[in-house]
Design brief:
Elements: H1 18-27, H2 29-44, H3 52-72, H4 82-109, H5 111-114, H6 123-149, H7 161-183, H8 189-198, H9 220-223, H10 225-237, H11 248-252, H12 254-268
Helix pairs in contact: 2-6, 3-4, 3-6, 4-6, 4-7, 4-10, 7-10, 7-12
Amino acid sequence: MKNQAPLVTIITSEQDTLKEYVLKIWKYRALIFAFAQRDLKVKYAQTWLGLGWTIIQPLTALAVFSFFFGYVLHWRADDLPYSLYVLSGLLGWNFFSYIVFQGMNSVQESAHVIKKIYFPKIVLPLSKVLVALVELAITFLLFIPLLIWHEQSISWKIIFIPAVLLFNTMIALSIVLFTASLAYRIRDLFHVVPFLLYFGIWVTPVFFTKDVLPEQINFLWHLNPMSAVVESIRWCLFPNWSFSSGFLPALLVIIPLFFFGIYFYSKAENKFSDFI
């Protein structure tokens, strides 16, 4: 039997096309799971509360928002219990913010690996998506007893949740990819983008409804893609919740923006090792 020649991978400085880069991501998909597993072990190992921290954080936000806005200011969410309204908003917002904050820092925190082995650097923020999904699943455990407490039922439209989470992921990764691609020349972006996102929850209907906004700026409701995601999650979860078609342009524009972000990131990632 003849000996087979060893498989050789040739790495050049030539830029990949978008198709080549996507195929390369698929080839290195095992690394996405490996980095995600590493992050989960680091986050929850040797902690007293372990996975409880993932529940305590949204539970604290839920308690603060429900008390201040629901009890003190008497805000209402149509026929939906206010605590359910807030928690359903937090599901989408926390998933989004985790990917953005962790994804932007993923290259720096894995600098020692980047300098030793080659792989498409987009693997790093993609691994944060898997960690965010685990945290989302744990947070959803809060949602079930709250539904039972308020005697609410889950809509059959919950089957569309994966599609909504896909758009949520694309929005978050678009921010990560463009920020990381430009940050090697403009380092201030690592400070500016998180600063801006801290205010993002105040322009996304996580704890307020459309009626709270003045009529003059009501159009901002439909321009914010995260508003579309949060409202889509509520539409998937609650039987009587309606979804406005005015959100569709904000969602659809994310698709080309996301793929352009991948292409832009692929052009810049070879320069990451020079500034980390």
